Amino acid sequence: MRHDSSLGLRCYFLSHVEAYVETPLIEFRDVTKRFDEKIVLDKANLAIYENQITTIIGKSGSGKSVLLKHIIGLLSPDEGSILFRGKPVREMKKIEWNGYRSRISYMFQNNALFDSMSVFENIAMPLRQTTNLGKKEIERKVMSRSEQMELADALLKYPSELSGGMQKRVALARALVTDPTIVLFDEPTTGQDPIRKNLILSMIAHYRKQFGFTAILISHDIPDVFFISDRILLLWEGKIAFHGTYDELTRLKHPMIDEFLQSLAGLRDELTGLLSKEMFTARYALTLSGGRVDTKISAVLFSVHSEHLADALGHQAALKVLKALGEYVNKYLGPLGGFSARHNRDRILTILPHIGIEEARQVVHDLAQGLQLKALPEIQALTGGKIGAVTCFEISVTAGITEGSSADDIERIMEKAEANQNIIARYQCGKESAQ
Amino acid sequence: MASTIKDYSFRTFFDYLGKRTIKGINNLGTIVIFFTLAFLKIFRPKQIRELIQQVYFIGAKSANIVMLVGIFTGMVLGLQLFYTLTKFGSEGVLGSVVALTLIRELGPVLTAIMITARAGSAMSAEIGILRISEQIDALYTMRIDPVRYLISPRIAAAIISFPLLTAFFDLMGILGGYLTGVVLLGVDKGAYFYRIHTYVDIVDIRGGFIKSIIFAVLVVTTCCYQGYFTHLRTDSYGSKSVSISTTSAVVISCVMILVSDYVVTSFLM
Fold this sequence. Notes:
The structure holds two protein chains of two kinds.
Chain A: H1 5-19, E1 26-35, E2 38-48, E3 53-58, H2 64-72, E4 79-84, E5 87-88, H3 94-102, E6 104-107, H4 119-130, H5 135-148, H6 164-176, E7 182-186, H7 194-211, E8 214-218, H8 224-228, E9 231-236, E10 239-244, H9 246-251, H10 255-265, H11 277-290, E11 297-307, H12 309-313, H13 315-333, E12 339-344, E13 347-353, H14 357-383, E14 394-404, H15 410-419, E15 422-428, E16 431-434
Parallel strand pairs in A: 3-8, 3-9, 6-7, 7-8
Antiparallel strand pairs in A: 1-2, 1-4, 4-5, 9-10, 11-13, 11-14, 12-13, 14-15, 15-16
Helix pairs in contact in A: 4-5, 4-6, 5-6, 7-13, 13-14
Chain B: H1 2-40, H2 48-59, H3 63-87, H4 94-132, H5 135-141, H6 146-184, H7 189-199, H8 202-228, H9 238-268
Helix pairs in contact in B: 1-6, 2-6, 3-4, 3-6, 4-6, 4-7, 4-8, 4-9, 6-8, 8-9
């Protein structure tokens, strides 16, 4: 089927113009950038809204970093204008421009740490050079950020002595030490293992909530990055071809988006080993159409909840719980023909074709036992035997079981399963509690 | 037909010459602006720490090599001049000739060349690496003016260090001349120092210091400029561009030292 792509996009944009009536924090209007003969940005239009995580996706070399460098002023457009709260940055007075710049931090793709300085000096650098804070106050701020990023033991080391993940955290600490209101992340997870990727993304989401900044991210780590993003921008051939949520992205019928999503279809979620959302959707459609009209399915929605877990054990602990849940779901529900995918950062949906609800309940009960007796207590190992010594934390895993039919779409099934959710495993300050 | 070819090659030659001249003037203008901006930013706050570090790097750490070169230059001068002056029966003026040669000419020039080789090349390479690894961009994103932070302290440190090292070189050279002239070849010790005291004027010393300050500005501006704009090179990229920038910085600095030495000397005479 052929469709008018420009019409689809136009309608889509119009619907969004109505949705966002607030003034964008940063706006690009017909921004064009050329390098010699090559046009990298071609009348690009985009809007970034306050207190959101906006992710820019696109092919390598499509101009994503160039776009980000325009925001901070490392590059300036050949044509068009960039607006900050509705005011063109080019028309700003020096004091306004400095004020604008002081709000923004930039985390480079290769970290751009000062290799002749220690970790402490790297993090302290912007404070020493751009503020009038005293030595003690600078030290206090650096220590505070270092502890949040789990870098306290590495403060005297040099960047070359650190692993890639630690270097990323140093860069993140340096970007956040000045309490910016806008943080630009240029591929913050490149070259990291699945745990680290999710760890960095979790940190970004967590600190965005904690410190309340606006985050603009470039990332190829799909689908993980979508779980933390409020809005997604697709940069294609120098223009913003799409902006909206991930769900809207998957619904939009356009050759460019199709090509993009097809490239995701074969991917698995690296953290949990489950199917990608696209593969899950395709398999769900196949299950319904391939079976009889009255195909019987059961669905289980698992969610992970935690209280003070990151404060007590770091961000890695929450990811380990999620990873363990993914493994248990695969182990117990996979052999029954079940297929699963993460539907946001902490939720996993499993479809069990041709399985009745009672049988599903029994399997989930077995899974919960394994989770309760083996996986969650392993979290205790992360504490080094200091549970409850500093902060009390709680982890709970809930599951909602429901029946579905061929008339139900995935959203409907999730709603039904969510309504039935109960705690199946819990771990609290060293105490286990079977449900 | 032959005249057309001749016209064409003439045109190509003048095209090339014109392009090179315009490029040269552009570069010169850029260097002058670069230096002016960096010089003015010396007086901004928060410079002391970097300034001390650079004085230590350019000045204190170059002292050994300057001392070594100074002593041997003075020794060679003492040796050569002794045999020349003996021909005229004037070996008694050895001290003043050695001292004047060092203070007016060799001291500032050789010190500048030594610092170029030791500190100038390192400066150019360091700034070049900062540039290609985006550390200069990182400074900008943190609202730290890269010229103020990286270049200004180096210029200030060079202006402080060059005259001091030149004086040190002169002193070591005179001592070297003493070793060969007095200790080895038997020139009278009192005559050696008396002639220095008599013939060396404050004008000579001032001239030497003026030269050393001019060399300081030329060397540090050239080396920093080559490193700072290493990413704009069209003949190479990445680490190769840093190596070529460093080589260019040293070669251009040495040529500039010798050319400006002649110009300044002709003004000071």
